[in-house]
């Protein structure tokens, strides 16, 4: 029984990591959207543009957009799970209801533990992918910040 409980705890930990990654997306997105909004609000008419303003504005927008794209990739659902799983929702729905109930009623502890551990591994892969995209998003946001400050200064002083 210990290995089954351990597998359940490990799966719960992985699901918490995924939830924590998802919770990081909204504040980063809000900051990036706000920064883009400030630039949009300060955009001058076509005849007032200066080359330095255009360069810094473009250089600040590119990483902000890249950061938002990375956030979108972090939140993109990853629905591939262990094939034939009795735990993963997609694997469950490949069977009809009666077949699934019968399989669960007859599953051995070892088979259920192995199924859970495969799910733990898959969720660890998902969490790793999400955190990599969030890390990339944050890097792009940090790169854009000094460029954004300079572009806002130029735009404000046109």
Describe this structure in words.
The protein is mostly helical. It has one domain. The chain is 81% helix and 0% strand. It is built from five helices and no strands. It has helices at residues 2-42, 51-75, 89-92, 97-106, 109-156. Helix 1 (2-42) packs parallel to helix 5 and helix 2 (51-75) packs antiparallel against helix 5 (109-156). The chain is elongated and about 75 Å long. The model has no long low-confidence stretch (mean pLDDT 94).
Helix content: over 70%
Number of strands: 0
Overall pLDDT level: 94
Helical/strand content category? mainly alpha
Question: What is the N-to-C order of secondary-structure elements (H for helix, E for strand)?
Answer: HHHHH
Quick one: overall form? elongated
Task: Outline the biggest β-sheet.
Answer: none
User: How much of the polypeptide forms β-strand, as a percent range?
Assistant: under 5%
Distinctive features:
mainly alpha; 158 residues
What's the gist of this structure?
With 158 residues, the protein is mainly α.
Secondary structure blueprint with pairings:
Elements (H helix, E strand, L loop, with lengths): L1 H41 L8 H25 L13 H4 L4 H10 L2 H48 L2
Helix pairs in contact: 1-2, 1-5, 2-5
């Amino acid at each position: 029984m210990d290995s089954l409980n351990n597998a359940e705890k490990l799966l719960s930990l992985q699901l918490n990591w995924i939830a924590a990654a998802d919770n990081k997306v909204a504040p980063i997105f809000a900051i990036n959207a706000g920064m883009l909004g400030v630039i949009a609000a300060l955009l001058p008419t076509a005849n007032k543009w200066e080359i330095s303003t255009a360069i810094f504005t473009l250089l600040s927008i590119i990483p902000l957009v890249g950061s938002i794209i990375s956030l979108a990739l972090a939140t993109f659902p990853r629905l591939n799970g262990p094939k034939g799983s009795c735990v993963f929702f997609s694997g469950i729905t490949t069977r009809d209801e009666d077949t699934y109930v019968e399989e669960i009623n007859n599953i051995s502890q070892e088979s259920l533990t192995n199924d859970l551990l495969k799910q733990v591994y898959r969720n660890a892969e998902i969490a790793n992918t999400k955190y990599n995209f969030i890390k990339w998003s944050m890097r792009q946001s940090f790169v854009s910040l000094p460029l954004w400050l300079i572009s806002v200064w130029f735009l404000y002083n046109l």
